[in-house]
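Hey,
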Amino acid sequence: MNEMKQKNIESTKFDIPPELQGQVEITTIDKIYNWGRRSSIWPLMFGLACCAIEMICTAASRYDFARFGMEIMRPSPRQADLMIVAGTVTKKMIPQIVRLYNQMPEPKYVVAMGACASGGGPFKEGYNVVSGVDRYVPVDVYIPGCPPTPQALIHGLITLQRKIDTQSIKKVRWYSKEPIDAIPVPLLGPDVVDPRQNAIIREQAEKIIEQSETNAAGTAQVEQA
């Protein structure tokens, strides 16, 4: 009972008779459901760059994020519900990240760890770097730093837990009647292409073709004259 009060999951809307206090607690489905999920988040075991070293330190004995129920880092996305994007996201790697995200079951969350994952970092203008993983997958928590310290990652994970505490079974997307569509996997060619932008790319290509045909027709008329 004391643990429920410490976790703030008991409901104070209903009075408990004095003879039952200490034996009975009243809570809501949302609170007990969120309490169970926030205390057993399993991160996906992968890292991209130097931020991954800080993530490994956070999992080690000095900081030990097992205190938050996160000690089970799963090598399979089908057994994980938290993706920590730790490091620089390159255009070569983003298709794999999106594919892994799609393979994770709902409910699932994403933490962008560090400046590179959040917005490109010092490599933002690089020809091979994605300027933020949130261009392709939804991000729940951003952690600044280059690289963030283990304390910063722990703060980000606590922030994620607070976000989970505010969710309701009636409103979350994984309990809605509408199906959840997978995110289209980006195509890697001379550059990375987001399939969700196909309509815009097609429209721009048609405008370029139309403009080139107009210019060609004008050039032909000038030559004939």
